Amino acid sequence: MYNSKITGLGFYVPENVVTNDDLSKFMDTNDAWIQERTGIKERHWIPDGSEDSSAIMGAKAARIAIERSGLTSKDIDFIVFATLSPDYFFPGCGVQIQDMLDMKTIGAIDIRNQCSGFIYALSTADQFIKTGMYKNILVIGAEYHSNGLDKSTRGRGVSVIFGDGAGACVLSRTEDNNKGILSSHLHSEGKHADKLIVASPSIKNWVPEIIDSKGKDISYFPYMDGTFVFKNAIVRFSEVIMEGLTANNLSVNDIDLFIPHQANLRISQFIQQRFKLRDDQVYNNIMNYGNTTAASIIIALSEAWEKGKIKDNDLVVLAAFGSGFTWGSVVMKW
Ligand code: ACO
After folding, report:
1. Which of 154, 162, 167, 209 is the 20 to 30 A CA-CA neighbour of 289?
2. Closest Cα to atom 7 of ligand 1
């Protein structure tokens, strides 16, 4: 069995910054409410007229990651793309990347696991490398949320949280068993699917039905039972972090850097306090990006790495919880 490790990583967000004050111009909200409940100060939203999309942002992040890995797009054996906001109902964004990066006719899959999407994507890529099937896999998380949000006061409980962006990494084979991904742990609980959902359009409720409802059907906007999600998130985050540490005979004290999915700063702070982690052991950037769902962990990981916060041999723990519900963790030695 081989091990896999990240050999290159990068991220891209649209230049357009939307502050909390900007939001209050078109919905009844304010900076104090948003910062107090979520920690978010600003997010990046694709502006009208931009060419950016989940696939295009993903490709921009991927080019950076591939260059930093010292490879070219021709060296990539497989693509795993995590998003809940694909450019098309089908096909997925992974195949667009194969074309945009002028790659060989390699395989490409999309992962539809929302906030846990990047953890699932990384774990999937890791399995392909562990079995020896592939050597270099491009793993991308990207989201174009802003075009699908209810930007009226009706949607304020959800829309203020989300941002657009993409991150990518190259996961490569290593024969050093003490380096790279040590383990990953994935879970789901589908009975809570309707607590955080975009229900339409679906094959059951297709576009003509939505239009016929004359605006009464708002199932195409994200719905979230925020309190319920919050309560489940803090339980599952804690469980899955401990599951990862225990599986590797490690303890909380061994963590050099914990990067939680950037759902809400209050969730991250709760976990930090529960595990008694110092500020320098946790990396948060939701303040400047909002919740970018499948992109959030890889954007945070890339940014932390760019800032020199991850050193050789550091123990890095990633964890996520989100719609599905799904949750998971990855423990890796840098
Ligand atoms: N601006 C101003 N007021 C608002 C806003 C807003 N953007 N949104 C809601 N309000 C109002 C509500 O209308 C309500 O008013 P009322 O008391 O007059 O009815 C009041 O604020 C309280 O609303 P709640 O929804 O109860 O607010 P809560 O304190 O639960 O905070 C939040 C909402 C931030 C979403 C919270 O539930 C939460 O953190 N949930 C965790 C889920 C989460 O973080 N999800 C992120 C995405 S999912 C994921 O990635 C895991």
Report:
1. 154
2. 156
Spatial contact of 92 and 109, defined as CB atoms under 8 Å apart: yes
CA atoms of 305 and 314, how far apart (whole Å): 11
Confidence (pLDDT) at 267: 96
**Which atom of ligand 1 sits closest to the CA of residue 114?**
50
* CA pseudo-torsion sign 166, 288, 5, 235: negative
Confidence at residue 274, expressed as pLDDT on a 0 to 100 scale = 96
Residue 161 in contact with ligand 1 by CB distance below 6 A: yes
Rounded to the nearest whole angstrom, what is the distance from the C-alpha of residue 38 to the centroid of ligand 1?
8
Q: Are 78 and 98 in contact (CB under 8 A)?
A: no
Give the range of the structural domain holding residue 112, as residue numbers without chain letter.
3-177
CA 265 – ligand 1 centroid, Å? 13
- Single pTM value for the model: 0.96
DSSP string, 55-112: HHHHHHHHHHHHHHHT--GGG--EEEEE-SS-SSSSS-HHHHHHHHTT--S-EEEEE-
Task: Tell me, yes or no, whether 272 and 165 share the same domain.
Answer: no
Same domain as 168, residue 19: yes
Q: At which of 133, 153, 177 does a domain end?
A: 177
Q: Residue 177: its pLDDT value, please? A: 85
pLDDT of res. 301: 98
Indicate whether 229 and 154 sit together in one domain. no
Picking from 138, 161, 177, the residue at the C-terminal end of a domain is: 177
Ligand 1 centroid, distance to 40 Cα (angstroms): 13
* Confidence (pLDDT) at 291: 98
